[in-house]
From TrEMBL:
It catalyses: a uridine in RNA = a pseudouridine in RNA. Keywords: RNA-binding. GO terms for molecular function: pseudouridine synthase activity; RNA binding. Signal peptide: none annotated. It comes from the Eukaryota. This is Pseudouridine synthase RsuA/RluA-like domain-containing protein. One of its GO terms (biological process) is enzyme-directed rRNA pseudouridine synthesis. Residues 34-214 form the Pseudouridine synthase RsuA/RluA-like domain. Pfam families: PseudoU_synth_2 (PF00849). It comes from Aegilops tauschii subsp. strangulata (Goatgrass).
Length: 236
């Protein structure tokens, strides 16, 4: 088949039934520039893999939103629908910020980017949280009892080739990108051999919390332990 100027190529996707996913999005805050949503666990933010319609983005496209009046100067920058400016893992619940205008999208994205820049500058863990307009805090239940009340993990995270994983595997490796996580103990559950922690991340590397907690010897409860990859060797 040869395509020429003006030709149209149509792909008819085979129908499939997507797995169940939560569909209720609670709006916590909304103004002319942005929306803050309470994303439930189990709902994917962007379409990928077997989830194409049951995503946050799809719901943002379907819902009617309050937009600035036509007389407002922001009106010309308004997008067709709000768009997420950061991501939360499908299994993670929490606050998700979405931009209504192009300007808000650029500005909010730059605030999140500051965290990654600071992580690269402050890999020794000093001045954590300074010079940032947006802070990200998560709660996690980990295996084992953390000895210290607080810890700062600055292990780089990168993508490496791994047998059986076509897209590669994100791991803790010296050749990866800078990443910083501040871990604080909230409660030690000695009878369960588990610890409830709060994690503040200063960058947004894929699976950062899971990788960093596994790196310090306390993987998330119910999650497979991530590998540490050094000089071509894997260590669990």
């Amino acid at each position: 088949m040869i395509l020429r100027e003006g030709s149209k190529l149509v792909y008819h996707r085979l129908a499939w039934k997507e797995p169940f996913a939560p569909h209720l999005l609670q709006v916590l805050y909304e103004d002319d520039d942005m929306v803050a949503l309470n994303k439930p666990s189990g709902l994917q933010v962007l379409p990928k893999g077997i989830f194409q319609q049951r995503t946050v983005l799809a719901q943002l496209q379907w819902k009617e939103w309050k937009m600035p009046p036509s007389s407002c100067s922001k009106r010309k920058n308004v997008q067709l629908h709000p768009v997420p400016v950061h991501r939360l893992g499908r299994g993670t619940s929490g606050l998700l910020l979405c931009a209504k205008t192009k300007l808000a999208k650029v500005q909010l994205a730059s605030y999140f980017a500051e965290g990654a820049a600071n992580a690269e500058k402050k890999r020794d863990g000093t001045e954590v949280g300074k010079e940032r307009k947006i802070s990200k805090f998560y709660r996690a239940l980990v295996t084992g009892i953390l000895e210290h009340d607080g810890d700062v993990v600055t292990q780089p995270i990168g993508l490496v080739h791994y047998p059986g994983v076509a897209e590669g595997l994100y791991v803790a490796c010296s050749s990866g990108k800078p990443a910083m996580s501040k871990v604080c103990v909230l409660e030690r559950l000695a009878h369960q051999n588990q610890t409830l922690v709060q994690v503040e991340i200063h960058s947004g590397r894929p699976h950062q919390i899971r990788i960093h907690l596994a790196y310090i010897g306390h993987p998330l409860v119910g999650k497979p332990k991530h590998f540490c990859y050094c000089d071509g060797h894997d260590f669990t």
